[in-house]
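Protein Record: Sequence and Backbone Structure Tokens
======================================================

Structure line: whole-number tokens from a learned vocabulary of local backbone shapes, matched to residues.

Purpose: to set a sequence beside its fold so the mapping can be learned.

___
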Amino acid sequence: VRVETGLSREQLQALALELGADVPVFVFGRNAFAEGVGDRLQALQLPPAWYLVLAPETAVSTAEIFAAPELTRNTNAITIAAFSIGQGGNAFGRNDLESVVCRRYPEVARHLEWLRHYGDARMTGSGACVFSAFETEAQARRVFAELPADMRGFVARGLDRHPLWSEG
């Protein structure tokens, strides 16, 4: 279903930013590199991937994490130019919120630790979900089949564009 709002994509993204820093990328509709508070987006080509996402049975308070006194705020921001030429390194994959969340929410730490046995695992935003990318669906499903009975998750295919994406 397509709804015509009469607003440009840029106007919709500005409205989306009022809902949260992660929301404009969904209106953007494509893989993107985000700068600022999620307001500056650049289309990005990523290799095809399948993801195993684990959802710990805990709710993380984003406000609590951002207010935590132990949250470091000294990570250098990476630009799209540096990312494009491969200068992102490990700093690009770093989530400053992760160490705070893992200390305060042991279930998130446990899920990350388990998933890291199978490759690079990361926390989504302020959590609680964690994920790892795989080249093929079969690889992701093999790891999913090993999931302990007290953990839950799902396998999903990465998309280049939202199914309703248009040039508008």
Observations:
- The chain has a mean pLDDT of 84.
